[in-house]
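Appendix B, Record 12. Input sequence as logged:
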Amino acid sequence: MAKKLLLAGGGHAHMMLLARIGYLTKEGYEVTVVQPSDHHYYSGMGPGMLSGFYTADDIRFRTRFVVERQGGRFIRDKVIHIDADNRIVKLESGICEEYDVLSCNTGSFVPFTAIKGKTDRIFGAKPIERLLEAQKQIITGCNNHNLSIGVIGGGAAAAEIAGNVHLLAKKNGCKGVKIRVFAGRKLMKNAAPAIQRIVRKYFQKKNIIIDESGHVERIENSTVIMQNGQNHTPDYIFLATGVQPSPLFSTSNLPTGPDGGLLVNKYLQCPDHPEIFGGGDCIYYEPRPLAKVGVYAVRQNPVLLHNVVAGLQGNDLLKFNPGGGFLAIFNLGEEYGALQKGPFHWGGKASFILKDYIDKKFMTRFQDLEKENAHVPGSS
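Logged structural output:
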């Protein structure tokens, strides 16, 4: 009987595995990919899509298309439980799927849950698809020239959303839009002081309000209620308070790290269940904590590819090396970026141009898979 490989999620860390499905199926393995959407969106370009600088097609991969054209199975569903002892995953639809090797790249979500009442005008930074819905609503809402938008969060995601939703409103005739960033006690507190200054100066130029008077306690019927007693009622609210892994692993009684992510060793492998691997935001790397940034998922690609195939074939595993520092560029809207690399910092259009080049290069590398598979005999 053919061995079964199941990929839970088709995110950044699984890109090279997705590219090799054709090889795996020709070798006689059954490959199944489970993902809630037919597409996977590149989160690094999400804020740019929100502003309209990119289209949805610019920032997404046709996961289902690529999987099926290479002879794999694609199931549009969500893994909600892993029975590791019996090597079975349960899906949200009730379907159960067996596996010999499982690799998890299920991403992360915004954990803010203190919400009561209406939620139709509240949008999380993830999943990225929600930013498309936000874009449509805000364009419609731009008929109101007094439109107000609240962004809850003080980190990079909040800064990028605030800058890009400002651009979206401006492009659609709402020049008087009022944006307030509920940044807790300090905007971009984990960034270098130079980056903090760059973002702050840009927001001041755009009249984006930086609220550092305290944290948000809850949201009730679209009213933002702060711990200091102040209330604000924006027309739209974005949640960008950081991300955490899905509760999938803790509820499945798998070993997890302090953040609830799947605990993996130096091989990106679950220590208690060596047939389970993982990468991206959904894992907790046991040797040392890793920031929830896409660069690590990209670096995990070749190791996951090798080790998952080795798990099927019984070969030796490779160690994952997270590497050193990385280049971080934040898209603040209007083709303006804030760049940080070690001690070097820069704000301006050149930073954005570099980010745009890097992001498009990454997208092109894997979107070319679609072009290659479009020429498979019998494909449409």
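The chain has two domains: 4-109+244-326+357-374, 115-239.
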